[in-house]
Design goal:
mainly alpha, 2 strands, single chain, about 75% helix
């Protein structure tokens, strides 16, 4: 029936010269039904093609699994070696970092640690100096007169009684 309607519609379109054809409401509805059916068939074909591809892949996997299960130990080792070789080819060589980067980082870190330690020592000296000065004035009337720092970095205090 669909073929007859399609042929009839095509014939009417050719007779009108490609222009608009006056159709009855039933003819329009039948034409729409035909186009809907054709579209659904195309979708079904696409889905069946996807299912067919999935089935082919599943069969391929099943055959490969069966072959692996039936192979001997020597064949398994050989296959594993081949797979590792292929994997190494695709991954490429791993590159080691040069030692210069690490040495540079270590130098920077040593310099920053040294500066931090110098700052801490300086703060401790200042705290000690202020503590001694406050103790000297509070006890027995001694007053701090001079402080000198030696080359070794130690501080010498001299006090005088007033």
């Amino acid at each position: 029936m669909a073929r007859k309607v399609k042929a009839k519609l095509a014939k009417e379109e050719r007779a009108s010269g490609g222009g608009e054809v006056l159709q009855s409401e039933s003819a329009k509805l039948v034409g729409e039904l035909i186009t809907l059916r054709d579209e659904s068939e195309k979708k079904g074909e696409d889905q069946s093609e996807g299912k067919r591809v999935a089935v082919v892949n599943e069969k391929k996997q099943a055959l490969e699994m069966r072959d692996r299960a039936l192979e001997r130990i020597g064949e398994t080792r050989k296959r594993n070696e081949e797979e590792r070789a292929e994997k190494k080819k695709t991954v490429g060589k791993k590159r080691r970092r040069s030692g210069g980067d690490i040495l540079e980082w270590l130098k920077e870190r040593a310099e920053s640690d040294l500066e931090i330690k110098k700052q801490e020592i300086k703060e401790k000296r200042e705290a000690t100096t202020t503590a001694i000065c406050s103790n000297a004035t509070a006890n027995d009337g001694y007053v701090l007169t001079t402080t000198t720092t030696t080359n070794a970095g130690s501080t010498v205090f001299s006090t005088k009684r007033e």
